[in-house]
Write a structure and sequence with these properties.
Low-confidence stretches: 169-173, 352-367
Structural class: mainly alpha
Number of helices: 14
Mean pLDDT: 86
Strand content: under 5%
Distance between the termini: 79 Å
Radius of gyration: 24 Å
Oligomer: single chain
Shape: globular
Number of strands: 3
Helix content: 55-70%
Length: about 375
């Protein structure tokens, strides 16, 4: 009688747990239809408060604990898989083994889904920042628009590179495209200053309690194909220290945008673009211009390729190379060589996994959504305040 009573209590507890977690999951999926509500109450109140709290704790630790947490999670999963394999005794008994096992897996996935959404994932569902910046963003861009943007960026690149050359030149010192004078620590400090400055114009970009960390295992980035990442369990922005200096400013600003709740890659890229474009630091401006030019040129060439006019495709490439200054071309080649050298280290399928992750989180274009920052940039450059 006592045994039955305990069994009944355990069964009731499990049922209540299923109902509780299931109800939260249903609620999360319902509020997806109210992006403005998510933006107002979740992102700007709940997530911001939670993010500040997490950063206040994790910033006290001088190294990136976020990577270590992932190691712990992987070890935990491996141990449980080993335990599961070793416990297979009744492979033919569906009711006593396979049914409970499948229910446990589904319940675990349900918990992971709910926790992920509550600590980070709901940010993907918020309304885009067009309202914050008073922008009207087009749904697509034309080949002519990308051509014009590329030409404008070429001029900006050439001019900004000259300013940057002077800023890194010391007595009897030759300018080096690697800019050894700068470090990731400098980029961290400068990024914090840039966000403090931009917050005077856009208060919603206020970055409280900074928490920027160098990756403990930068080689993971080569294997999995990332430059940096936001760790939702610790609130850290973790950046690879081996990246070329000309890639770091845009990358760091992108990750800070994630810390502020801009989960979409398009929106995080746009925030990084805004911060860098309003910056007085030529390094930040130049890094942004390099990134945006790569996007715009690629977008234009893709649109031309779709028409089948490959002669025009070649002409555009040749023209852009001729217009870019030799030192800008050298910088682009240096960055390209860095990533080409590491391409062979990529784990097969890792890019497809991340692409699917983006699609699950309301980014229909997957990895291609990174390029959509062009639409935001075009709208922002048309505003009267844009420099």
């Amino acid at each position: 009688m006592q045994i039955r009573s305990k069994t009944g209590i355990l069964s009731s507890v499990k049922t209540c747990s299923w109902l509780a977690w299931g109800s939260i999951a249903v609620f999360i999926n319902l509020i997806r239809f109210f992006p403005d509500w998510i933006s107002k109450f979740y992102t700007h109140i709940i997530f911001h408060s939670m993010g500040i709290g997490l950063r206040a704790i994790s910033s006290l630790i001088p190294f990136a604990i976020g990577e270590l947490l992932y190691i712990i999670v992987v070890i935990y999963l491996l141990i449980n898989i080993i335990r599961w394999v070793s416990s297979i005794k009744k492979m033919n008994d569906f009711n006593e083994f396979w049914m409970p096992l499948m229910l446990n897996i589904v319940f675990w996935l349900l918990q992971v889904y709910v926790v992920f959404q509550l600590i980070w994932g709901l940010n993907y569902q918020q309304s885009n920042p067009a309202k914050q910046f008073n922008l009207i963003v087009a749904s697509k861009y034309s080949e002519q628009e990308m051509n014009q943007l590329s030409l404008e960026l070429i001029t900006e690149l050439n001019n900004t590179r000259l300013l940057l050359s002077e800023s890194v030149k010391g007595e009897n010192e030759k300018v080096d495209t690697k800019f050894s004078k700068f470090s990731l620590k400098y980029i961290f400090e400068r990024s914090i200053i840039e966000f403090k400055s931009i917050s005077k114009q856009y208060p919603y970009l206020t970055y409280s309690i900074p928490d920027l960390k160098e990756a403990l295992f930068p080689n993971w980035g080569d294997n999995l194909g990332y430059l940096a990442f936001y760790q939702p369990m610790t609130g850290e922005a973790i950046i690879r220290s081996d990246l070329p200096i000309l890639v770091q400013p845009f990358t760091v600003c992108h990750e800070i945008a994630h810390q502020l709740g801009y989960a979409s890659e398009t929106e995080a890229n746009f925030i990084a673009y805004v911060v860098a474009s309003e910056s007085k630091d030529p390094l930040f401006k130049y890094a942004m211009q390099l990134q945006l030019f790569s996007y715009s040129q690629q977008a234009q060439l893709i649109l031309i390729a779709k028409t089948g006019n490959f002669e025009k495709w070649k002409q555009v490439v040749a023209r852009n190379k001729a217009l870019l200054s030799p030192i800008v071309l050298k910088d682009r080649q240096f960055i390209k060589a860095f990533f080409a050298e590491r391409e062979s280290k990529r784990v097969p399928g890792s890019e497809k996994i991340y692409d699917q992750f983006l699609r699950w989180n309301k980014q229909a274009k997957g990895i291609d959504s990174y390029n959509d920052v062009l639409l935001w940039a075009l709208a922002y450059r048309k505003t009267p305040s844009t420099k």
